Amino acid sequence: VITCDGSVQHLSCDTGLINVMSAIYGRTDKRICTTGRPFSEIQNTACVLKIPIISARCNGLRQCEFKTDTLGSPDPCNGTDKYYNTTYNCIKDVSVTCEDGYSTLDCGNDVIQIINANYGRTDSTTCSHGLPDTILADTNCYASGTLSIVATKCNGKSSCTVQASNTTFKDPCFGTSKYLTVSHHCLPHPVRNDFLFPIHSIHFKKSNALQSRSTIFGAGVLNIHNANYGRTDSTACSTGRPSSQTSKTDCYATNTLTEVTNRCEGKSSCVVPATNSVFSDPCYGTYKYLSIKYSCVVAITDSDAHTDRGLHT
Ligand SMILES: *[C@@H]1O[C@H](CO)[C@@H](O)[C@H](O)[C@H]1NC(C)=O
Ligand SMILES: *[C@@H]1O[C@H](CO)[C@@H](O)[C@H](O)[C@H]1NC(C)=O
Ligand SMILES: *[C@@H]1O[C@H](CO)[C@@H](O)[C@H](O)[C@H]1NC(C)=O
Question: What is the CA(86)–ligand 1 centre distance, in A?
Answer without folding.
Answer: 8
